[in-house]
Amino acid sequence: MATTRTRLTVSYAVVLVVTMVAFAIALWFGQQTRAADELAAQVRRSSGEVRRSSDVIISTIRAAQATGRQLTRVDTVGNTRVVVATQALAALLDPVPGYFLLFDSQDKLLYSSVLVRLLPQDDQESVLTTAIRLTSELGAIAPVRGDSLKLLLVAHADSAIGANVSRVVAGLSMSTATLAPQLLIGTIIAIFPLVLLLSAGVAYWIAGSAFRPVDDLINEVEAITDGRSLHRRLPADTSNDELSRLGGTVNAMLERLESSFGALRRFTADASHELKTPLTVLRADVERAMHPTTTRAERMVALEEALQETARMADLVDSLLTLARADEGRFDIYRVPIELEPLVREVYETAVILGEHAGLTLALPTLENAVVMGDRTRLRQLLLNLITNAIKYTPRGGRVELSVTRRAHDEIAIAVRDTGIGISAAEIGHVFERFWRADRARSRASERGGFGLGLSIAQWIVQAHGGTITVQSRLGRGSIFTVVLPAAPTPQPAETPPSAAEEDRAVTADRAESNIDFTNS
Known about the structure:
- 54% of the residues lie in helices and 18% in strands.
- Helix 1 runs antiparallel to helix 5 and helix 6 runs antiparallel to helix 7 (296-328).
- It has three domains: 4-181, no CATH class; 241-327, Helix Hairpins; 333-486, Histidine kinase-like ATPase, C-terminal domain (Heat Shock Protein 90), CATH 3.30.565.
- Residues 439-448 and 510-521 have low confidence and may be disordered.
- It is α+β, with helices and mostly antiparallel strands.
- It has a five-stranded antiparallel sheet with strand order 4-3-7-6-5. The protein has a five-stranded mixed sheet with strand order 9-11-12-14-13.
- The protein has helices at residues 4-66, 87-93, 114-117, 121-133, 179-223, 241-290, 296-328, 340-358, 376-392, 454-464, 500-520; strands at residues 72-77, 80-85, 99-103, 109-112, 140-144, 149-162, 165-173, 336-339, 361-363, 371-374, 399-407, 411-418, 468-474, 478-486.
């Protein structure tokens, strides 16, 4: 397959050929028109020369007749008199140069010059026909030699020219008028191959120079063959706007790919780590339960631990499946009007039980009733994730608050505040990443061990409901997670029909008004 550089060069050459051919044709017609104008001007200039040539011929004939030489004779053929030129006339006029013809009074050709007789037979007939048609000294053009030569013929009629000679038609070559177009076409044909080769070479060089930065970009992109090379970036070409935009777009795409690959690697590593620990524990418990020296009580303890690890892995797989479906947009949210007050009280009651076990104080200082459009199951999951996360990272004796307030612009704010360990400023931007947990809580053996997927699921639920979730936290001071959801539109009250008493009063008023109008009429 030909390269873009070759295709551009060929296209440029084709366009150049077509342009030159069109230019040559237009120039040819222009030169033809100009040649015709020049011919007309030359005709006007040359008419005098032709007449002077005729005068020379006439003077020569008269001088010969004055010496008594017989140039013509009259023969009788039947009842018709025919004028015939003698050998003396030919001997007299053959040395005279130029194109000319002699006619008698009957327009019969008496003599034609040597140059006329040297013309081809067809051209002689053309000149003779044009000369016979001349009835004045205005002149006419006779094409000869296949139209490659033109003769300007001018007639000189005078009864005193000589015996039996009544008209002289002299001609002058006009070949210079057709020289310019022929020379033009010849020049174009001669230089056309050189111009074509030179132009194609220059076009090929220009196309190569224009595509050299593109080749560099292609080489740079080809060098980025796998996820380990995504840190490389294309050089920015500030001298070319289009290539600069292309490089910037590719760099942005590489940045997104690098981020996606990094997230995928972290996700794979974290998921493997999260699954490896329960699988190891599960295997150990099963092996312990199957050991022949294990007592019944120890076997029951091992199976109970295995069941707990199995449930833990099931929760992890369920969370991963939820996020995967959310990423693909295949998780449907059934949005209906939901009253937040009963939902929040239900979650609060569950949180109180969890808080008592953890030695925490739960509070519900503000609970404003509001209605949102949402999925009740997912909203309950959202609140439980936030309140459970707050309880998990708050030490004993701490406090967790849950509040619901209305804001301007029909917004509902749900806030979960705790006095827990908090999050550092460097880590607060990662709280919604999957499998992320603060370093001090990374240990799976601790009581706060978890998967690090709860906040990611919470963020997805909030975004699916058209809301936002934010976090404010200081290390050792606790955290505040705030969810803002749009309130459901308030339905317009239906117009109540009038009561029977109101209808009776309206009818009575209409009758009274009718009676008044009738009386006035």
